[in-house]
Amino acid sequence: MEFFGLDCRFERLDAPVPIFGARVHAAQWSALALAVAEAKGRLVSLWGSDERAAGDGFAVSAAYATADGLLWAKLGLDAAEPAYPDISRFFPAAIRMQRAARDLVGIEAEDEGEGGGDTRPWLRHGAWPADYFPLRIGNTGQERFEAQADAYPFVPVEGDGVHEIAVGPVHAGTIEPGHFRFSVVGEKVLRLEERLGYKHKGIERRFMGMDVDEGARLAGRVSGDSTVAYAWAYAMAAESLAGAKVPERAAWLRALLLERERVANHLGDLGALGNDAAFGFALAQFSRLREDWLRLNHECFGHRLMMDCVRPGGMARDIDAEACAKLRSQVTAIADEVAELKDIYDEHAGLQDRLVTTGRVTPELAVRLGLTGLAGRASGQTADLRADFPWPPYDGLAVTACSHRNGDVAARVAVRFGECFASLRMIDALLAGLPGGAVHEPMLVTRDGVGAGWIEGWRGEVFVALETDARGRIVRCHCHDPSWQNWPVLEHAIIGNIVPDFPLINKSFNLSYSGQDL
Amino acid sequence: MWHILKYVARRGRVTEPAPEPLEGARRPAHLIHHEILAILGRALAIRHVDAGSCNGCELEINALNNPYYNIEGLGIRFVASPRHADLLLVTGPVSRHMEVALRRTYDATPAPKLVVAVGDCGCNGGIFGESYASCGGVANVIPVDVTVPGCPPPPAELLAGILAAVQARPPSGEGMAAQEDFAPGFN
Ligand code: SF4
Fold it and tell me: pTM for the complete prediction?
C-alpha cells in the first residue's frame, strides 16, 4: 500500500491491528515525517538497530500512528558513518528517543536546520564510555567499565531571586528514581528539567539472542504496572512474525486481563491522588478495593499482577466457570463502590479545590507535544486504539474513548473514573460472552522474520517491534512506553504551579521510569 | 462529611493478623508491635530504595500500606530520609546508574542498620542479570541481611521478610550501647 502519495510500498503485517512496514530512503524518511505531521498523525516510537550481521549497515526506524493504522518506516544507514535526518522539528517527542538511539546504537540524528539540537546523552550516564554502544553486534553487553565522571549540563535559568531545587534520583516516597531540577521563584516553578535513565538496566541488549518464547517473560517486565499490555504487544509481535492466529478464547481472555490491569491501576491512582491532596480516606478505601482486586487476580490467574499469563500463541492458563462467576460478581461489587466514591470526590470541595486548574495541559499544547494515552485524553485528545482500530474482541464491545478538555489534574481524575466504569462494563461483557475452545496454539517462529504489536495499555499505547535472525532467535526487540511522549509534557504542566503541587501533578500523569529507561 | 462517615462505618475494619516471620502462620498485631519495641526500643522506620526495578515490586510495597496489612498498626512506617531509617528496603537489580546513589543512601543510614533485598531481582539480578548496565543483586553493592524472593513478592511475604530482619537483630539494649553514633548530631 502507498501512503501520503509517497513512492514506497508498505506491506501489511499479519497483525489484528493495521500495521504496515516499509524500507525507505533518506528523502522518503523526511517526507513521511512531514506528511504524517501535516495529517495530524503521531510519532509512536523511534529506535536504532545494528544490521551489519545481515550484511547491511545500521538502521533507524520510526513508527507513526495515522488514520489508517501504524506505519513503521525503516531507513538503512551507512556502516561507517551512520546518520539520519532529524525528525524532532516535526515531532518534539523525537528528541529524547534520538538521544537514546545514539547512546545505545551510535547513530546520529543530523539536524538540517539551524543546528543546536540537543546532543546531550540521555540513557548513558557515567556507567559506560561515550564510544561504547551496547546494541552493536561486536559487543556482548557483558562488558564492564569503571564509572566515568558524570557532569550533566542542566539548562540554567537566571534572574532575580531564581533558585534551583534538585530532587532525586532517590525520592522520598515509594516511587521510582529519577532526577528533577526545578528553577523557582518563591514557591512558583519557572522551569522543570527532568533527567531520567537511572533505571537503565540493559533490557534491549538482554533480548538479543533470546528465543521468542523466553522474550515474553522479559517483555512482561519492562514496566511491571503494564505487564499485561507489554505481554500482549509482545505476543502480537511474535504472532504477526510467525503468521499465527490465536484461538478466539485466548483473545477474549487477553482483553479481560488488559481491562483488569487498567482497573487495578486506576484504583491505585485514584487513591494515591486523593492522598496527595491530603484526603487520606481515599487512599484507605481505594487501596482496599485494589487489594480485593489483586487477590482475585491471584486466585483466578495465579499472579496478583497477572505476569506471564499472556504468552505467544495464546494464554498460559485458562479459567473455569467458578472463576468466571467470582470475577463477575466482583465487577458488580466494585462498580457500586467506585460509583459511591466518585460521588464523595465530586462533593468534596476541599479536594476539588486542589485538583481543578492544577497542572494544566491545554489541548493545543497536547497536540503540539504529542501527549498520548490517558493524559492525552484528559487534554482533549481522543486516540484510543481500542476505539480507533478495534481488534477482536474489542470489535464487539463498542468502545468509545473517555475524553475531557480541561487538561488539569481534575480532568485526569475524571478520565480515570470514566475508564474504570467502562472497563468494568467490558469485563462483564467479556465474561458473559466468553467463547469456548483452546487457549493456546503452538506456533512456529519464522527465521529472519519481522513482527510488531500495538496495544492500548492503561497508560497509553505500548508498541513492540520484533525481528528474528537466521536461526529464529531475537536479533532486535524494541519496546516502547507511552511515558516517552508524556514525560516532556510534564515539564510544561508544572510551569506556574507551586512546588508542593508537584507530587500531585506528577501522580496524575503517573508515568513509568522503568518503561522509558529500559 | 456525612457521606464519608457513612461509607467508613459500612465498610468497617478489614485489617488481618500479620504473618509469622518468613512463614505462613498469622500473628496478632499487638505481639509483633511488642516485639518491635523490645528489639528496637521504638517503631521501625523503613526507607525504600528503588535501585532499578521494573516497578512491580513497588506496587506490592505500596500495597503494604493498605488497610488489610495495616503496617502502621504494627509499629512500622515508611520514612522519607535514610537518616531516619532503621531498615532499607531495596528493590531491583541495582542498575549501574543507581549504584552510587544506593551506596550513598546506605552510608547516610545510621548504624545499626538493616537491609532487606526485595524480589528475585534484588536477590540475584533476576531476569535482568548482570551486564554493562546492571550490577545484579543488591548484595553486590551493599551488605544484605535478608532477601525476599518472588517476582514480585506479595505483601505478606514482604512483611514476613521485614519481621525476620528485625528479629535477627540483637535486642536494643546491647545493640544501642555499642553504637557510638546513636548520639544526637551523627552524620
Ligand atoms: S523481582 Fe520481578 S517484579 Fe520485582 S523488579 Fe524484578 S522483575 Fe520486577
Answer: 0.92
